[in-house]
Every structure is written in structure tokens, then in C-alpha cells.
Specification:
The complex is a heterodimer. In chain A, strands 2, 5, 6, 10, 11 and 12 form a 6-stranded mixed beta sheet that branches. A 4-stranded antiparallel beta sheet of chain A has the order 3-9-8-7, with no helix packed on it. Helices cover 0% and strands 57% of the residues of chain A. Chain A is mostly beta strands. By secondary structure, chain B is mainly beta. Chain B contains no helices and 11 strands. The radius of gyration of chain B is 13 Å and the shape is globular. Classes of the chains: A mainly beta, B mainly beta. At the A-B interface, strand 5, strand 6, strand 10 and strand 11 of A face strand 4, strand 5, strand 9 and strand 10 of B.
Chain lengths: 113, 114
Amino acid sequence: AQSVTQLGSHVSVSEGALVLLRCNYSSSVPPYLFWYVQYPNQGLQLLLKYTSAATLVKGINGFEAEFKKSETSFHLTKPSAHMSDAAEYFCAVTSDSSYKLIFGSGTRLLVRP
Amino acid sequence: EPEVTQTPSHQVTQMGQEVILRCVPISNHLYFYWYRQILGQKVEFLVSFYNNEISEKSEIFDDQFSVERPDGSNFTLKIRSTKLEDSAMYFCASSYGYSNQPQHFGDGTRLSIL
């Protein structure tokens, strides 16, 4: 079985500060990992994905994530937060044995001026 | 850029009624999915659909639910005899294939059961 844990339901940063959103996964098979962002009243938009190639993955809007197998983590970072980054972020996992996405509970990012 | 479209954006239905949620996946995608998100909870997988049949379903997807691809473009979720606890945001998604390919999501249908 697979699962995802996102630590921190809410994260608040100042504009220009580092963004770090945490995601830990559990999987008995090699995982594929995704980060999605959800803006108010919108669907889920793909930020980036890890699919067993490079462990450091770059995505849209300046975000990146690093796959660390030893820590079973896939944390999302951005060097400098922008007001437009305020949204809810979801980490998700899947694998070759199942196409369904298993989501974490989400982290709401607040950006203070 | 191609996108997944869902209609309606908001559906209000009396308890016990049937409701059909509609989705138009990205045209060259082969796999289709429904997820739901109850307010304040996780996004949950309901069902996946490939080659005109269900490929996987969750425990939530019981006999009350059904999916259909009635033509070459639409993908529908039918909920029979709706219950209060069916109130949620329902998301449709599609992917080209293979589990390492990202799923593309629509903006969702907010279903409110009265």
C-alpha cells in the first residue's frame, strides 16, 4: 500500500523568503511522485514530477523538489516566495502497480507582504 | 494548451435524486479518472477507466456510482440516489498512459446535496 504524509496543514512565509513544504511517502514499490497546486476555485495543476530519472526535479513557477529515497521524502522548495504562490499544495504518489494517485492532505501556503 | 473540462461547475440536487457529472478529457489521452474531495478532507480516488472499462476502483465506488464514455469525447460519473455525504468537489482527470505520466485535472464540479 502507498501513502503520503504532508507535515503542516498551513505554512506561512514572508514574501521573498524560502518556501519549504514537506512530503513523506510510504511505498513498497518504486514510487512516482507529484506535486500539484490548487488555487481557489480551480482544479489541480501539476507543478512537477519525479519518475525515477534525476532526483532533483525542477517544475513550473520556480519550484523544485528533491527525491530522497533514504528519507522517503519529496519536499517542495522555492528560494523566494511571491504573493502569487499563495495556494494549497498537494503531494501525491503512484506506481507501476496502480495508476491511481494517492494524495496527501495538502498544505496551505500563506505569503505575507 | 489542451485541458480537461467539467460541467457543471456547481450542481445542487435533492437527496435521493440521480446526478450526472460530465467531463471532456484531453483528446489524445487514454486513461480517465474521477476523484472527489469532501470539504476539509483529502482528495480521494474513486475510479479509473481505460479501453471502455473500469480498470480500478476504490471502496468508495460502490453500486451507487457508475461511469461511462458515451461517445468519443465525454466521460461521465453517475451517482444514483444521492446522499448528504455525497456532497463534495468531484474532479475528473485524464492521462496519456503509464503511471509515470501526469494526470491532468479539470476545475471540478461542486456537488451539493440538500
